[in-house]
Structure formats: structure tokens, C-alpha cells
Amino acid sequence: MRSFLDPEAPLVQIGDLNHVIYLAGIFVILFMLFKFRYQIKENPKRAMLGILIFAIVQRIISGSYYILADEFTVTDSLPLHICRVVCYLIIIQYFAEQKWLDQIIFYFGLFAYASFIYPVGISPALHMLGLSFFMLHSLIIVYPLIRYFTKGFVPSLKGALQSAVLFAVYLTSMQLLNNAIGSNYFYTEERPFLHDLSEPVYFFLNMFGIGIGFVIVALLIHLVINYVKHKTEKPKNEKEKTLV
């Protein structure tokens, strides 16, 4: 039980067993999601209720750890970390049902993919924070797919631009908070890379680089969609010509 709550548990290293477990876990979840996509499409209300309950349970587990470990402070628990903000938005969206909010959730949620690929400060799989990490980031990755199955959600270029603007506001707010209380939101204080850059350069590189990244992702998604449409429509047209 001590290891499950141990605040000194060694962190995940890229390519180690815990990293492999996390990657295998998300692949299994995605496989099951696509396997049961038709059932999800036929039961949208149940699917969204399940998402709501899962998101709330994840927040309870995360908060409970910091209480049990006696580390429930703003600088330790970081309740406004971007993926945690996305979880709050998912909970809000259950009641709000705003199309633009799905766009923000998707683009802000891209950091969940990065966390699985390049884990920074992540606890091992058999740890309460590790469980919380996996639940949170799996939820963020799965959510847009469920919205696609149930609502036809597709990330848009407009959504990418809106997300870029809101991210600039978020990053600026977190930097001010870091300067005020010594927290490490968005890893601006304890950086995982680019240690030699000055603080202003690192800040603006994040702000504009990530905004551009959102736009590139939007363009790539629509490029793939158009390609798939072209490939599927071409055989239909050829079949129609043959019949004529």
C-alpha cells in the first residue's frame, strides 16, 4: 500500500516497463473503442454519461492522492495543469453542449498524446498518481472520438485558431502564476528540454509554436479527410459509369 501512495516513487523513464504499459494500455482502449463504435453511436446519451462519471472519478482520485499524501497545495497538485483543465471542460461540456467547446477540448487535449509519447514527471503504473495519469490522458484522447461517433465532431481550422488564442491566454496566465507562487505550470520553471533558452524566448516559442502546431494539425486532418473522400468517391463514380 505504501508503494501505491509513495511520494518518492521513481518516475517513468522513456522506454521503460511502465512507459510500455501505458502505451499498451491506450492502444487496447482505442482498439476496444473502435470495436464497439456502432454501439456507442446507437447509445450517445449513455456514452456521454459514462464519460461524465469517468471524468469526475478521475478528478476525485487525483485530489484524494494529494490529500492522503498531505501535499494538497497549488504548487504540488497543480489543479490548472492543461490536461486537468481539459477534464474540467469535458465535465462542463456534458451540460453545455457547445460545438466550439469540443474544438477547444480536442486541441488542448493534444498534449495528452505528447504525455504518452514523452512522459515527464509521471509516476509508475502501480501508483495512485500513475492510475490518475492514465485515466486522465486516456479520457482526453478517447473523448473526441466518442464525439465523432455520436455527434459527427471533426476538428476545424476555425477551432484551431480559437484554441491558439485561448492557449496564449492560458499560457500567459500560468506564467504569471508561476512567477507569483513558484509553481511549474506548463513546465516553464523546470523544463524537460531547451534549458539554455532565456525565459522570454522559451515563453514565446511555446505560445506561437503550439498555436502553429494546432493549425498544422487541423490542416493535416482535413487533408486526410479529403483524401479518404476522394478515394471512396472514385470507385462509386467508376461504377456508375460502368452501369451507364
Care to give the gist of this entry?
Helix content is 76%, strand content 0%. It has helices at residues 2-5, 17-35, 37-42, 44-68, 74-77, 82-96, 99-108, 110-117, 128-151, 157-181, 199-243.
What does this structure look like?
The structure is a single chain. The chain is an all-alpha fold and 244 residues long. It has helices at residues 2-5, 17-35, 37-42, 44-68, 74-77, 82-96, 99-108, 110-117, 128-151, 157-181, 199-243. Helix 4 (44-68) runs antiparallel to helix 6 (82-96) and helix 8 (110-117) crosses helix 9. It is globular, with a radius of gyration of 20 Å.
Percent of residues in beta strands: under 5%
Count of helical regions: 11
pLDDT < 50 stretches: none
| Fraction in helix | over 70%
Count of strand segments:
0
Strand-and-helix sequence, N→C? HHHHHHHHHHH
What's the average pLDDT?
A: 89
Task: Tell me about the largest β-sheet.
Answer: none
Radius of gyration: 20 Å
The rough form would be described as globular
Counting helices, strands and paired strands, the structural category is mainly alpha
Separation, N- and C-terminal Cα atoms: 72 Å
